[in-house]
Amino acid sequence: MSHTEDRRQGALLTARGIHKSFGANHVLRGVDLEVGRGDVVALIGASGSGKTTVLRSLNGLETPDAGELRFDGGPVVDFGAQAAGQDGGRSGRRTAARTAKTNRAALRDRSAMVFQHHNLFPHRTVLENVIEGPTQVQRVPRETAVGRAEELLARVGLADKRDAYPHELSGGQQQRVGIVRALALQPDLLLFDEPTSALDPELVGEVLTVMKELAEEGWTMVVVTHELQFARQVASEVLFLDGGVVVERGAPAQIFTDPAEERTRQFLQRVLHPLD
Amino acid sequence: MSHTEDRRQGALLTARGIHKSFGANHVLRGVDLEVGRGDVVALIGASGSGKTTVLRSLNGLETPDAGELRFDGGPVVDFGAQAAGQDGGRSGRRTAARTAKTNRAALRDRSAMVFQHHNLFPHRTVLENVIEGPTQVQRVPRETAVGRAEELLARVGLADKRDAYPHELSGGQQQRVGIVRALALQPDLLLFDEPTSALDPELVGEVLTVMKELAEEGWTMVVVTHELQFARQVASEVLFLDGGVVVERGAPAQIFTDPAEERTRQFLQRVLHPLD
Amino acid sequence: MDWQLVVDSFWPLLLGGLAGTIPLALASFAIGLVLALVVALLRLSSNPVLSWIGRAYVSVIRGTPLLVQLFVIFYGMPEIGIRLDPWPSAIIAFSLNVGGYAAEVVRAAILSVPKGQWEAGWTIGMSPARSLSRIILPQAARVSVPPLSNTFISLVKDTSLASLILVTELFRKAQEIAAFSSEFMTVYLEAAFIYWMFCTVLAAGQNALEKRLDRYVAH
Amino acid sequence: MDWQLVVDSFWPLLLGGLAGTIPLALASFAIGLVLALVVALLRLSSNPVLSWIGRAYVSVIRGTPLLVQLFVIFYGMPEIGIRLDPWPSAIIAFSLNVGGYAAEVVRAAILSVPKGQWEAGWTIGMSPARSLSRIILPQAARVSVPPLSNTFISLVKDTSLASLILVTELFRKAQEIAAFSSEFMTVYLEAAFIYWMFCTVLAAGQNALEKRLDRYVAH
Amino acid sequence: GCGSSGESSGAGDELGLSGDTLVVATEGTYRPFSYHDETGELVGYDVEVAQAVAENLGLEVEFQETQWDAIFTGLDAGRFDTIANQVTITPEREAKYVFSTPYTVSTGVLVVAADNDDITSFADLDGKTTAQSLTSNWNDLAKESGAKVEAVEGWAQAVALLEQGRVDATINDSLTYLDYANTEDASGIKVAAETDEESQSAFVVTPERKALATAIDGALDELQADGTLADLGEKYFGEDVSQ
Ligand SMILES: Nc1ncnc2c1ncn2[C@@H]1O[C@H](COP(=O)(O)OP(=O)(O)OP(=O)(O)O)[C@@H](O)[C@H]1O
Ligand SMILES: Nc1ncnc2c1ncn2[C@@H]1O[C@H](COP(=O)(O)OP(=O)(O)OP(=O)(O)O)[C@@H](O)[C@H]1O
Ligand SMILES: [Mg+2]
Ligand SMILES: [Mg+2]
């Protein structure tokens, strides 16, 4: 791919002190994150530890209560400001709301997301799913969008499914279409939320293989996953999340063979050797 | 357990030439199966290969189109007879229908099933879920049933959850209650349909551990599973199903290290090494 | 607006509601629900004749005006020798009507309970009838509260037709007062307000019931 | 049964249905649906004032008798200087009514579309309005066909009340013929049969529509 | 309860009644003939005439109130013995039912809005719109005069339509108009013309109950003779309306 080279330099995304509560449930308690161009960051951790919430904070699906995000050397999106605004009476609240809205959209437009349950549009064909974003939002001419979509579908081995509806595909095929739909937006950052955990085991491979290829091509990716084998082989950095905090981070080789923290060790033990 | 000894002798269940179609979809194409007392039979195979359908045929949730089942040296339940009855005009059909009904109930009363999605009764507490079968169907006095239920719950570490509702439990806890509900029926045969595949990875262990203990106590079990590690450690026999036929059967050591069939080898490769 | 009239007619109207509308609606709804369950089971039956009977019943009840149904029960039945008093006639007619509408709700609610619940019932040894009563219906109840309360609210208003067969209820009272005073607009608005009060109380009851039934269901 | 009367009155009744009942129901339903969407969005709004307006509207429409709503539009509005002809009055009143009932259906249907669909729309850059129109509503449509067709069937029968505000439709025709011949039972039964025919055709249409919309949805 | 009350054999048996009760259907919403007063009691000219007739015959009277739509159906079904609700004698009805001698004789009035000077006779109705209740025979008169008829529930709605200028006229019983003019504010409407022809209202029974009609005839004769009918007319209309 032509843009491979210019992806490998500088921090694309920096997150600092991200906090998020749902009601009384303080889910994220100050998460820091740095993603360089071309990095593949794997987020692992137990259910409920906040992995999904971190990911969703990166593309504006959740608005953090505090913390800041910075994209590609651009302006700092400061969620603390918003929290301050909340004390600032009515007009303060309004400004804060407006800012939050702009911030969320700015975040979202740099990234694309692949969901655990694909979330394909069931009433549209595979092709229509893929070109929906480019044609409806990015105003790419339909011709161009279709051309690109077909190219991408061919790359993941689904050229012949362009006119199928999502429910006519297997789980693995659906997830691959989900990936293509994300790629078609030409984002700077790809976000994956357990893209294989709802799949039958023998279909996991076909999706992971596509993701591995993307990593090799230099796409920047943040991947929430339980596939520790994949994280080990593909990730440039692994973050272990527990109780809304990044407990440990490091190269996969270190985390998996010699975790510094007891909590990490226990988690890995439970997942890798459930019967012991 | 007191009944451990008398479980280890003779074939408890024999199935011969089981066929089953759903409409035009010929799902089972002559499945043979023998389960000895105290055996743990693991059924593995790709999605759609018919594993669940085999299991459901064993407890009457599906009525096979042809084949025979024999329980514990009892009378042969011949599903072929029923097919014959279908040609035999009205009264033939009626007799066949009656026979099928008796057969199904007979099968069901010897076994108990643990489902993939637990299927606990959401409007009843844990305890009520467990004693429902004994008190409502088997006419065990409530006192006795509660006593047994509490014993079983304690054994799987859920003594303190007896008055909780299912939605207040974690996935792993729900599955353990499902197992207790099955055990409370004191069946001859336990059937498991992928009891861990809907669980978060770090919760898989707690369920598999309970199942392993049951196997060690001598319960007779048929387990559909994708947990090859578990099958390897616990099963006395592994059956690989493909396209509605048992392609290969044997001891776990043999199947996993040296499969005789190419199809078995491919399947194991895909599941165990998805990224290669 | 003639406020004196509004004040004077409030009690007679409310009384018409409390002594006519509400008991009529409650009795018909209770009986109608039982009927609805029977019809829903007919419709769900694998026996084509039974299922056809269920479908035909629903089709006729829902496809024809309630007014005609009332007419047939009250004025038509005597021609085949069955003569009932106004109240029994009204309760029968409204129950049959509720039975037709609620049958669809009950049927949908039964179908909405996951198949796995039937299967769990089967595996622990239950007969279909026992599974239905102990496992399926309690869960179907939760799902059917909102649509059934719609049926009930419609019923409350539909009971105004009972005046055709000599039952005195809220709306009939309103007509009487309107005929006397010629202020039909005022009186009808007042009656509407009382209907609205009844419905609001019902809606509150519905919410409470939903909350109660939600207790043991995941969110 | 006076068969000559049945034969003689069939065409006038059917005509009353085709020229009155059906166009009135169709027009009111179309306008009412648009209104229902607006009200459903109000109710779903996070703005408490808007959501209160939506709730109040639904509460009033569903809590008060349709007859009074018709009277207010037709006999009441002139008192504040708005005098509409019978047909426009009827269409407005029935549309407002449908709007209240269908709003709940539309709201439930929108809520029934998995949240992930909104999120997928968001991640590919869509505004909420665009997500609604291109992603959510097409899926909500499938879910709302059965309850909406119930609303429509009720509407068809409710249009009989339009006769109260001088619109001639099927039921008014029946009343005229019955008043003239004094054979109320016969004529009303015949009218009921024609309503039932209309409803049966509608139900068939509903089935066809459901099949069409099922095309691209998993089973 | 409805219909069958007492077991004691009496005057009712010979008339084909079950027991000693005369069951009379009436609308209860047709002022001043049949309506509920401030106290909620059923009163009105027709109601009191029916009571007087029953008393004369030695019968209990029981009123059943229902809408016009149901009133003849109920008579056919044997739910009521007779109707006291200004049922006008028409040839169509005479073909099906048996009438007593009339107890109300009245004319019809053509009522228009107070500021309407275009309509001064029934002939002027040609091409105009009138509001009529379908229950009355004035309906036919309006049609014969060439008017387009809009059907309304009752007198009050007809007046509202007139005052709102939505119809040009309404034809109704002069007695109804008089009562309205006496009790309500009738400044918005006026009488434009009156019919020459009189209409007659009577009790109506099914043909099997011919004996009952004959008995009612006898009772009405006596009530006429002893001045009861005239008194009732005075009470409700300020004049005798029975002949
Ligand atoms: N929209 C929400 N409203 C309320 N609570 C929420 C919401 N989203 C998440 N939570 C809660 O936040 C906590 C973290 O959730 P999150 O989904 O981020 O965990 P996770 O690490 O992704 O877990 P899993 O592996 O199960 O996906 C959980 O306790 C969850 O219940
Ligand atoms: N009730 C049914 N009606 C129609 N087809 C069915 C039914 N149950 C199963 N099938 C079909 O039968 C085939 C085998 O299904 P089965 O559930 O037994 O497979 P499985 O091996 O358990 O797969 P999985 O691993 O996905 O659970 C599939 O093609 C499935 O679609
Ligand atoms: Mg998650
Ligand atoms: Mg299965």
UniProtKB/TrEMBL annotation, chains A, B:
Q: Which GO terms describe its molecular function?
A: ATP binding
Question: Per UniProt, what is the membrane topology?
Answer: Peripheral membrane protein
- Locations listed in the record: Cell membrane
User: Sorted alphabetically, which SMART domains does this protein's record hold?
Assistant: AAA (SM00382)
**Main location (coarse class):** membrane
Give start and end of each ABC transporter domain: 13-268
What SUPFAM superfamilies is this protein classified in? P-loop containing nucleoside triphosphate hydrolases
On whether Repeat is a keyword of this UniProt record, the answer is no
What Pfam family is a match, any one? ABC_tran
Q: Which UniProt keywords apply?
A: ATP-binding, Cell membrane, Membrane, Nucleotide-binding, Transport
- Source species, domain of life: Bacteria
Protein name in the entry: Amino acid ABC transporter ATP-binding protein
Q: Which organism is it from?
A: Promicromonospora kroppenstedtii
Traced from the root, the source organism's taxonomic lineage reads: Bacteria, Bacillati, Actinomycetota, Actinomycetes, Micrococcales
Automatic annotation (TrEMBL), chains C, D:
Residue spans making up a coiled coil are none
Q: Which residues are listed as membrane-spanning?
A: 20-44, 56-77, 187-205
Q: Which domain of life is it from?
A: Bacteria
Q: Which SUPFAM superfamilies match?
A: MetI-like
Q: Which Pfam families match?
A: BPD_transp_1
Cell compartment(s), UniProt: Cell membrane
Question: Which InterPro entries has this protein been placed in?
Answer: AA_ABC_transptr_permease_3TM, ArtM/GltK/GlnP/TcyL/YhdX-like, MetI-like, MetI-like_sf
Q: How does it sit in the membrane?
A: Multi-pass membrane protein
Q: Which UniProt keywords apply?
A: Amino-acid transport, Cell membrane, Membrane, Transmembrane, Transmembrane helix, Transport
- Which PROSITE patterns does the protein's record reference? ABC_TM1
- In this chain the ABC transmembrane type-1 domain maps to 18-206
Q: Which family does it belong to?
A: Belongs to the binding-protein-dependent transport system permease family.
PANTHER family, sorted? L-CYSTINE TRANSPORT SYSTEM PERMEASE PROTEIN TCYL (PTHR30614:SF0), MEMBRANE COMPONENT OF AMINO ACID ABC TRANSPORTER (PTHR30614)
This protein's name:
Amino acid ABC transporter permease
